[in-house]
Amino acid sequence: MTNQHALLDRALAFRALHVPGRPLVLPNAWDVASARLIEDAGAAAVATTSAGLSWELGTADGDRLERDRALGAVAALAAAVRVPVSADIESGYAPDAAGVADTVRAVLAAGAVGINIEDALYAGETEPLRPVAEQAERIAAAREAADAAGVPLFVNARIDTFLRSAGGVDATLERAAAFLGAGADGIFVPGVVDSETVKLLVAGVDGPLNVLVGPGALPVAELAGLGVARVSAGSTLALAAHAVVRRAARELLGAGMYMALADGLDHGELNALHGAAR
């Protein structure tokens, strides 16, 4: 288990990185190699992508990954970098609030000091989002478990109103207020791409706002000017990396050429990154 004092220091450091107007920028990782490359690029923290992690472990995204497998991967990743790590735990890897508390204890044992917990529902559910009161109970359980452990875990409540076409600004703000009241520290609203909506969310959310970025999104500098406190790339880095594999494999097996392999990392450079004293 991670040293309690080191975990506390990382948690406080991670919490301090969420500043409206000076956003924490997170190119999300899915394994040890991507985490070390992101850290080496200058990231102040590393956050996992549940989609990328699921694919790395041979499972589809969307609450299909088992808690132990997911957090085993998070533990390896957290042990491989020096910066704070936040774990995307999807819906909490548990059917109820008590199970979410168990997940949070396992997150801390893995060495992570932040979580993303989402309100989306997946296979077999008739509604796209979990009811507000139920999700607030799950967030409260996460908060209580972390507080009982003496670690100020940063609880980032993801609201999928826009991503799942389940509501607009008003519905998002209603959920944000309930989740912050239950103990969340920040609000993550993926699927928002226009400046006017971002402005409304920044003004209406009583806490740090996190948005998802990728091709077509507003530049980080513009998001900073709007008052955003956290910017996440989500699964986009993993998608881009896997796209290279597919292009290169098809080119090699089809045309027998290698152009897709140009601009690859130097073997010695990547080997040194993994061989350096940590």
From TrEMBL:
SUPFAM superfamilies hit by this protein: Phosphoenolpyruvate/pyruvate domain
InterPro entries membership: ICL/PEPM, Pyrv/PenolPyrv_kinase-like_dom, Pyrv_kinase-like_dom_sf
Superkingdom of the organism of origin: Bacteria
PANTHER family to which the protein is assigned, alphabetical: CARBOXYPHOSPHONOENOLPYRUVATE PHOSPHONOMUTASE-LIKE PROTEIN (AFU_ORTHOLOGUE AFUA_5G07230) (PTHR42905:SF16), PHOSPHOENOLPYRUVATE CARBOXYLASE (PTHR42905)
Protein name as it appears in the record: Uncharacterized protein
Phylogenetic lineage: Bacteria, Bacillati, Actinomycetota, Actinomycetes, Kitasatosporales
